[in-house]
Amino acid sequence: MPGCPHQKKAIDCTCTYGSCSRHGKCCECIVYHRSLGEVPGCLFSPEGEKTYDRSPEALLRDRRG
Q1: What pLDDT digit, counting tens, does each position of 8-60 carry?
Q2: In whole angstroms, what separates CA 25 from the centre of its chain?
Q3: I want to staple 44 with a disulfide (CB 3.0 to 4.6 A). Which of 49, 54, 58, 65 is the partner?
Q4: C-alpha span between 64 and 9 (Å, rounded)
Q5: Which residues span the domain enclosing 46?
Q6: Is the residue at 6 inside a domain?
């Protein structure tokens, strides 16, 4: 996504799904997950992110501890 101010080097992206074509491309990642009713993995704790459950409910469980 040209002009996205939130590009990261792939090494700085906290998502563990490294083979994703959107890895490190924050704007593309957010658009993709929103279109599926999901939340990007970077908003989860490291433990929560590794479950690959990107549902809003999973984020709430993860944040509540």
Answers
A1: 666 778 888 878 899 888 888 999 999 999 999 989 999 999 999 999 999 99
A2: 10
A3: 49
A4: 29
A5: 20-64
A6: no
